[in-house]
Design brief:
- By secondary structure, the chain is an alpha+beta fold.
- It is 41% helix and 18% strand.
- The protein contains 16 helices and twelve strands.
- The strands form two sheets. The chain has a six-stranded mixed beta sheet, with helices on both faces. Strands 9-10-8-11-7-12 form a six-stranded mixed beta sheet, sandwiched between helices.
- Strand 1 and strand 2 form a beta hairpin.
- Helix 12 packs antiparallel against helix 14.
- The chain starts with 18 loop residues before the first strand and ends in a 9-residue tail after the last strand.
Length: 459
Amino acid sequence: MASAPNLGPAPRLVLPSPTETTLPNGLTVKLVGMHEVPVVQAVLSIEGGARLDGELAGLATFVGGMLDEGAGDRDAFELAAQVEYLGASLGTGAGWDATTISLRAPKRTIGEAMALLGDVVLRPRFATEDVERQRDLRIASILQSRDQPGAVASNVFGYTVYPVAHPYHRPIGGDSISTVQLDSATVRSFWSRAADPRQATLVIAGDLTLDEARALATSALGDWRAPSATAAGAGAGAPNATQPPSLATRVFLVDKPEAAQSVLMIGAPGVTRSSPDYAAITLMNTILGGSFSARLNDILREQKGFTYGARSNYSWRPLPGPFVASASVRTDVTDSSLAIFFEEFRRIRSEPVTQQELDRAKSYVSLGALGDFETTGQVAGQLASLEMLGLTLADIPRELDQVRALGAADVQRAAEQYLDPSHLTIVVVGDVKNIRAGVEALGLGPVMLLDHEGNEVTP
């Protein structure tokens, strides 16, 4: 039988050094010259995102999605038609940490395409009828999500892991109560406060010089002025966003009668991307559940056949995002699957990982990073994301070197420090009448029944 070839060390990642300039209005422009093909990718990121929602959960993502629903003297259809005519693509949206407008165009039409981006930022229409239509669509989507166990588990996880005052407590897309309050005036007010060039970075990758990039930015966004009143928390994290308390392990069940599967989410607040242990945590999680060959997936999928996939992940954000281990498993093995999760949490803390696991995980991390910087779109997107995290392209090869230098003791230390099985929140969405007894018998912690909005249900 033929054996698999031995893999050599992963190639080292070499990244270019961006050049940058700042416009008089405070907008930072960063350029990565990539001259192989005449294509330009631009990503405009405005710091804040859903952290600035305040009392209206989902506001930032709603506004981000509305930005391309007409701008300047064009409605949504006319804007889309002009983008297509230029051979370009335009996308808008918001995440937890930023509102983002992305643009890709051939070099020959980038000037006209950038003018459209300028309209989107400076002259969005936010027409009443468009806002009402998108609001109704979002409400319908929220109502539909109540029948989706994965969405319910994710929402309840946020409700139970993060306190009420924390920006991660509620779903990033809001709920029906907050969404019905959205109107054109609310959208315009938010954008007038959040759209601040001093909190924005325009990242450009492609066939341009810095002088060309500055000229494009000046033409499209030079008239952008800082708002008289900024959104609360902009540029400074978010209000009431201190590290959530570390709570003893508890179990929350959400009933989905007759469900064939149980959705499991297990986790806790994690750490910030600036953690000095980022490399060790990344390598530890790659071995635990961050890759297809990781322990959780290997046991629960390959060996046991309980699930199509099991994984774990640390969400890296400026504020401590969650650590989550998850899987959708057959109803009859819900308790067995939870037992395996916790067995693996304890094992990676108490036993050194093998050299094979260590080498494989290092290669996985290194090769994955190589694949993140292949195209102009990837380079611009990665640089924009790093900017929101306070990092640069130069930090990535340095962190990869740190990963390569780690040993089994470093992985075990990271697990001991950042993965505590006695302080995890467990959310299970499934057929409670068939799973509750088995889950309670595990003795992982107190068991409580919740509804899809995280409210306690009396049995």
